[in-house]
Amino acid sequence: MIMNKIEELQKLINECDNIVFLGGAGVSTDSGIKDFRSKTGLYQEKTKFPPEYMLSIDALYNYPEDFFDYYRNNLNCLDALPNVTHLYLKKLEDNKKLKGIITQNIDGLHTKAGCQNVYEVHGSIYNNYCTLCHKSYEAEVVFNSTGIPKCSCGGVIKPDVVLYGEMLPPCYEEAINLVLNAEMLIVAGTSLKVSTASSLVNLFRGKYLVIINNAKTDYDYKAI
N or C end of the chain: which has fewer CB within 10 A? Predict the structure, then answer.
């Protein structure tokens, strides 16, 4: 049954030359990175504050030490390597079939795999900046720090990831255009509970919508 579905998907991929991929945390679990909402995800763990709050701009401002402790303990994926999904997407891009990868992940694994057209709509752990002078910092500076990471000017070094309560980056507009013009949209590893992803699915008007996820989503009825 699974093999039949894989073969069917490959036939559709062979037919299309304007494919867009939309991925979430489930794409990176085979690289050893925990997802968020599954039974073994980060959001199931007990924390001082609700997990979603721990990843909010509010927590960063009001409880910075707690925020950075949580961030360092749970989102450090510097040693993670691309898995078969990342590498297959690289192959599709090389074959001029895949026009763009829209990812909610902040792990940078699509870039590590060599993909070029990656839209990190939730930012990346690899980009960090001082909130006062805007000096850039490597991810290792934050993950190897203790307490609140500080710039030489005294400002807080903030990971350039989209926290709850923050606006999406400009690349989200580019992601919208990709989806609007796509012939095929492959959605994988996301529950589609976050509006960042679900809004894009609602905008898709192409021929084939494919959803690959361990659990059912509210948008399965739209998929082939």
Answer: N
Nearest partner of 25 among 68, 74, 66, judged by Cα = 74
Q: Tell me the two tokens of residue 214.
A: 């361990």
List, for residues 91-125, the tens digit of each pLDDT value. 999 999 999 999 999 999 999 999 999 999 999 99
pLDDT in tens, 158-216: 999 999 999 999 999 999 999 999 999 999 999 999 999 999 999 999 999 999 999 99
β-strands 157-161, 98-103 pairing: unpaired
| Catalytic residue status for 134 | no
- For 122-144, letters b (16+ CB in 10 Å) and e give bbbbbbbbbeeeeeebebeebbe
Nearest to 45 by CA among 18, 70, 80: 70
Query: 86, 110, 122, 134: which one is catalytic?
Result: 122
Within 13 Å and on the Cβ side, how many CA atoms surround 5? 6
The answer to whether 206 touches 224, Cβ cutoff 8 Å, is no
Structure tokens at 119: 């839209």
Domain borders along the chain are 1-33+81-122+167-224, 34-76+125-161
**How far is residue 154's CA from residue 164's CA, in Å, rounded to a whole number?**
25
Pick the CATH number of 1-33+81-122+167-224 from 1.10.405.10, 3.90.190.20, 3.40.50.1220, 3.40.140.10: 3.40.50.1220
Q: How many residues does the chain have?
A: 224
The two tokens of residue 132 are 């006062």
